[in-house]
Each structure stands twice: as C-alpha cells, then as structure tokens.
Amino acid sequence: MATLLSVSKATKKFGELVAVDNVSFEVDEGEIYGIAGPNGAGKTTLFNLITGIPYQADAGRVAYRGEDITELSPHKIYELGVARTFQKETAFDTLTVQENVRIGAVFGTGMSPDQYDSAVEGALESLELTADRDRLAGELSLYAKKRLMIASAVVSKPSLLMLDEPAGGLNVSELSELEALILRLSQGETTIIIIEHVLPLLFGVSNRVMVMDFGRRLAEGSPEALARDDDVIEAYLGERGKDAFHAISG
Amino acid sequence: MSLMDQLNKYRIGLAIIGLVAFLAVPFVITDKLLIHLAILGMLYAIVASNWDLTLGYAGVFNFAHLAFFGIGAYTSGILAVKAGVSPWLGILAGGATAALASVIVSIPAIRLRGIYVALLTFACSQLVLLLLLSQPLITGGQQGLTGVPQLQIGDFRFRESPFAHFYLVGFLLLCSTIFLRRLVTSDFGLSLIALRDFEEYAVARGIPLAQQRLLAFLLSSIFPGMAGAVYAHFLIVASPDIFGFSLTTLLLSMVLVGGVATIYGPVFIGVVMTYVSELMASSAWMSDVFGISRGPVRFMFVAMLIVLTMRFFPGGVWGLINQLSSRVRKQKQAAADQHT
C-alpha cells in the first residue's frame, strides 16, 4: 500500500523542553494508525506539527503524498485533504450545527455550492446530527459536540482524518458507538490517525499503533504485539506496575 | 426565532413602511437643524455599521475606520478643489482611495491580535492625519480644505434643497446596509465569525485567515470612504477634526451601544446618538446642572454610555431587543405547550 503520510525526525522544543524528539513514522493509505502514550508524551504536539496548527516543527520533515508540507499554511494542508479534530470538544458555539458543518465544506474543498450542500446533508446524517441542525453548537452535549467536530471534518471528504482523543469523557455506550463510527469512516477512502487514552478502543480499531513517551517514539507495532511489550507497559504503569501486571496476567 | 427572523417574515411590508416614512421625513420635519443632524447621523451610521464588520463580526480591534472616512473626504475634496474633478467622480474616488488605504493598513494588522491591532490601526489613523497636516498647500493644513464644491446635478444645487442631501445619504446608507447584511449572512460572514470565535479551529477547517481579514478591511472601507466624500461636499470643507479622538469615541459608542455584530444596531443608534450628542452640546441645562462647559458634557455622556452598556448589556441595544424578543417567544411557546 502507498505511503500517505511520512513524518521524518520531527522535533519541537518549547524552551528547554523537547516536546517532540526526533520522531519518525509512516502511515499507509487506508489504514487506521493509532498513537498512544501517557499524558505529556507529545502526541497532540505531533498532531500540531503535522497540521501546522498552531505551530510548525523546529526540525524534521512532514510529507503528504510525497509533498513536503512541513511549512505549509494550515488552510493549505486542509486543502490537500488533511482534516483534524481537537482534544477538547471544539465548535463555533454561536453558529448552528448546520453552519458549523457547512464551514468544513465551503472552504478549501473545491466543491461547488450544490456539492457542498449535499455533502453537509450527508455529514449531518452520517453523524446523526440532522435533528440538531438548527440548534446552536454551544447548546450541544459533549458527545454531540464531538460528533459535530468529526462531521465538520469528514464533510470535506478528507484523505487523512486525524482524531485527537475522540473518546475523552464518553460513557460506555457512547464509546461503543464511537468505535463503530471510526470503523465505518475508515471503510471509505479515508485514512485515519487516532490519538487515544482509552486503550481498548484504540487497540480495537487500529491496524498499527505507535507508543510515545517523553516526546520520543517508544514502540510501534500491531496492537497485539504492543499489549505484550514491556517498555509500553512500563511507560503506562511504571516499573512496579509492570511487575504487578505480569503477576496478574501470568 | 430571533427578532431578525420575525422581522424577515414581514420584510416586504416593513420595507415599504420604512421607505414611505423615510421619504416623508423632510416634509414632516421642517427644522433645518434636525434635517442637518439626520444627514450627519446617517453618514456616521455608515461608518459605524461598516466598522462593525471588522470589530463585531471579524473580532479585529481596528481603529482605522474614521481614517477611511477622512481619506474619502480629503480625496474628493482635493480632486474637486485642486483638479476640478466632478464631485460625483470624487465620491467614487473616495471609496477607491479608502479601499486602497484599508489594504495598506490591513497587511501588517491581519497577523496581529487584540491590543496590538488597536495600537497599529490607531497609529495609522494618526499617521494619515499628520500627512495631511504636513501638506498645507494641498490639504489646507490645520484650517482644513475649504471651498469644496457642493454637489449639483445640472443647475440643481443640493444645498438649496432640504431633500437632496437627505435622500442621497439615505440611499447611500441603505445600499451600505444591504451590502453589509448580504456579506454577514454569506459564507464569507460565516468565515469571519468562525475566525473570531476560534481562530485555530477555523484555519483547521480551511479558512484562509489573512485573506478573509484583508477582505473584511477592504469591503468595510468602501462605503465609509464614499460617505466621507459626501460629508466633505455636504459641509463644503474637509477638516482634520474628522480624525479627532472625540469623533472616534462617538462612532465607537454607536457600534458598542447599538450592538456589536448586528449591523442594524449601529445603523439605528448611529442616527440617535448623533441627535442626542448634538442636542447635549446645544442645550444649556446639562452644563447648568453639572457646572461644566457644554462641549465636554456630551463626551462625558458618551463615555458613560459606553461604560454602562459594557457593564449591563454588552450585546448593546439591538442585542437587548433580541434577548427580550426571544424571552417573550419562549414564554409564548411554553404557554402554548401547557395549553395543549
């Protein structure tokens, strides 16, 4: 399968803190690529470097379909077909649900007005937001707002959809719905990169997972392999936690 | 349903009533001073409502709009006085020059935020004033450019009729308001609101920040430039007082008290504030009561009004009307639901 996204030796520093340290990875077309790691591991910073929002990499290279996008403006990156969501549920609260989704369709997609009208309807329906279309986004529940954020991204029919902790704050039934939604989205032509703390969901949907810690790439592999990786278990649970984990799991 | 939605339902009827009422004004109000103030009020309303596009919708703390008005006034005035250009062409040139100036101001301003935009645009405004003062042979310096010809069509001179300027400026205000409403309800308007509400999210959805903000400056400068030109021909002078802090504060109060991001608020309150402010300057009782000379009283009043608005109803008068109308509608809906 062709490589869609290639990140090579990406680095980002904030003063003395190296938030992303020489990270490299590749994502193939059509796959779901997971990124895991404890808080502060540099996952969201890595998303920011790829999309240029709100900053770009200090060093390294980000290539999309072979084209260097490291220093491209965020709206140009969106035009290429890269859409992202944010860790915190985000919407334009003073606009309606329909207007929120419309914004994702109108700018940088090259669609005609007829095309984006139908794309908006499709996205609202697919994310089960049709009934809420005239409500202000600020009035929505957490889960509806998260779906709205995804709807405003998928309405552009992106080749690469980047989801930043979509499961945060959701209950069990919502998690199960979200998992089904992610799998459904990946059945089209959309490649997905997902950052997630809810490991059952991440491991359930991903073809491959990269684990980060202290800004560095700790491990990469299939979810099954990583679930048995000592370095990964230690990153999450610490030295003593790792021993306890092995004692319990035998 | 907001007040705007309710008004939209009856928009044709309301438009006809409004038009008839407007056309009747010079027949009903025969006091020349009141008509003069109405014309000034409408000119200021054009500037205030266009300022609202950048300040209210785009969320850019821009203080250059009065400079666009002044540039329009001086452009048309200089063209007419020094080159004999027709004032009607001068009005178009005023809009074009203001648009050009807005691009020059917006290039450094669009990447800045908050107070830095305010400082930069205010500095640009003062720079224009200093440039005008530095060229007294062309601009008349501190005295202003006098002898600006009045508007006329054939032998008909506008200043000789109480109707002509009133209808002309009313038409300009109507065109400006329709233009602004169409802008803010378009996808362009959505993009400005998105950038104002959440800049990072907006650019993540493909909205080109620099381009949209530059367009907001450009599109909101044309009518103020034209209004400035009409102002110069109406008063037959282009004065550096246009750039003064007093007029800036008055126009800012029209936007804030009228209601930011509403367009209609600054239009209506623009006219009302002009009346109130001028009446305060010309009536003695306020200064008698407070023992202050007449000039400062009105500006104290304007400043107080801004403070009180920001403190008690930050959405301004139009926002307050919308809020009350929404509350009444909800109560009616609740009563209807209870009844059924």
Multimerization status: heterodimer
Report the order of strands and helices of chain A. EEEHEEHEHHHEHEHEEHH
Count of distinct strands of chain A: 10
Low-confidence stretches of chain B: none
Structural class of chain A: alpha/beta
The proportion of residues in beta strands of chain B is: under 5%
Shape of chain B: globular
**Series of secondary-structure elements of chain B, N-terminal to C-terminal:** HHHHHHHEEEHHHHHEHHHHH
Reported for the largest beta sheet of chain A, the result is: 6 strands, mixed
Whole-angstrom Rg of chain A: 18 Å
Mean pLDDT across the residues of chain B is 91
Q: Largest interface: which pair?
A: A-B, 28 and 17 residues
Beta content of chain A comes to: 15-25%
CA distance, first residue to last residue of chain B: 20 Å
Helical element count of chain A?
Answer: 9
Task: Give me the side-by-side strand order of the main sheet of chain B.
Answer: 1-4
Shape of chain A: globular
Unreliable residue runs of chain A: none
Task: Output the number of helix runs of chain B.
Answer: 17
Brief account:
Chain A contains nine helices and ten strands. Chain A has helices spanning 43-51, 74-80, 97-106, 113-126, 142-154, 172-186, 199-205, 223-226, 230-249, and strands at 3-14, 17-28, 32-36, 59-64, 67-68, 82-84, 160-164, 191-195, 208-213, 216-221.
